[in-house]
TrEMBL record:
Key word Transmembrane present: yes
UniProt signal peptide: 1-23
SMART domains documented for this protein: EMP24_GP25L
The keyword Membrane belongs to this UniProt entry's keyword annotation: yes
Keywords recorded for this protein, A-Z: Endoplasmic reticulum, Membrane, Signal, Transmembrane, Transmembrane helix
GO cellular component: endoplasmic reticulum membrane; endoplasmic reticulum-Golgi intermediate compartment membrane; Golgi apparatus
Species per Swiss-Prot/TrEMBL record: Nicator chloris
Domain annotation GOLD: ranges: 42-123
Subcellular location: Endoplasmic reticulum membrane; Endoplasmic reticulum-Golgi intermediate compartment membrane; Golgi apparatus, cis-Golgi network membrane; Membrane
Transmembrane segments: 194-214
Family: Belongs to the EMP24/GP25L family.
SUPFAM superfamilies in alphabetical order: Supernatant protein factor (SPF), C-terminal domain
Bilayer topology term: Single-pass type I membrane protein
Protein name: TMED5 protein
Amino acid sequence: MGPWLLLVLLGCLVLLLPPPGAAEFSPSLDSDFTFTLPAGRKECFYQPMRKEASLELEYQVLDGAGLDVDFHLLSPKGETLVFDERKSDGVHTVETEDGDYMFCFDNTFSTISEKVIFFELILDNMGEDGQDEEDWKKYVTGTDLLDMKLEDILESINSVKARLSKSVQIQTLLRAFEARDRNIQESNFDRVNFWSMVNLGVMVVVSAVQVYMLKSLFEDKRKSRT
């Protein structure tokens, strides 16, 4: 069996049968959510985090008058980490500790308009501590003569995984931007149609008044004598 064929078989073994408890990938969890926040309401969400992890949160107001909302991010101890007042979007990253982080979107300042809000969470370094490369040593026995080591394969897979995750994140943000721009265009379209109809109605009324006034000028108001 040639060395490259052995390399291919080892790569398939790593992908299909990972050892239990081995967490060589840098865990990165992405999630996004879009919801409608009614006027005069406040919505809060909770995210459990571990120590020395990273929490990145990005939000955008996709629709609603003013395209603005108040945003709060609180630590597990109740301390305010971030406060955005009447913002349309924002990106915040914090280093976390053990506990539940709370973030809230506040629309209580609006009495009429509801808001459509999109947010995305990116959680990094959420894996277990104490993982090392000892779990993989039994799989690299007999590979000293190979040009590429198993660690190199794992590093390449991690690199591809990170780039794919970044691509998915960028596509999600682009969809959010597209949705907000579409809502703005539709709102402008409705506004233009409304005022066009108003102007048309005014022109019709003015034309009718002008015709009536011209007719009244040429009427013979003298009474005929008998």
